[in-house]
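Below: protein 1.
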Amino acid sequence: MFPCAQGVIYPMEVVQTRLAVSRPGTYSGIADALAKIVRLEGPRALFRGLTPTMIGILPYAGAHAVVTLDVKASVLNVSSAQRGRAVSSLAYFDASCQVQARSMSGSGCAK
């Protein structure tokens, strides 16, 4: 999930960075910066540097998932022998809650 979201917002991060580091007057705003980047450097310029960013995110996303599921299992006082089964159940519960949250504005999903 994290890498996909990063790929979607990355072009706006490029525009934000260009606005922050460029000389005053280079761009008149977000739309102008976006248009100039695409016109002068091509659309691929909006994704320049995405690969290293994704490589950096993957270990974080994996560690985040492992720690989150382990903490949930610990909070539920699951024994270490049952932890594997409980963690997979929690992952299924999280997925069903996310679907419910999107379709019913979060009703029926304990947070």
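Below: protein 2.
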Amino acid sequence: MADMCSLKPVSIRILSKNGMPLPPTGDYERVLKLLKSGKAKVVSKNPAVVQLLYSTPKIELLETRLENKKEGYEKEKEEKELKKRALILKDSFKTKIY
């Protein structure tokens, strides 16, 4: 039976230089190469999280897209909440107390 410590995680979470989450990877050799060259540091061992210490235009573009996506979700959530409140307010005006 394999030792539990020797098992590799399914994926390694990646953080950008600014701490923004990037898509996880399963490419362990590439992550080890980044760690050995000093281009990344270990943030957490369980779950496996590595933070990059450099940035590239491609990473910056990905960060921007993820931020825009997050903002879109937040706006959508706010709109749903406003619609919900408007319906509650509308219903409260419909019911009259005699």
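Residues 56-98 form one domain.
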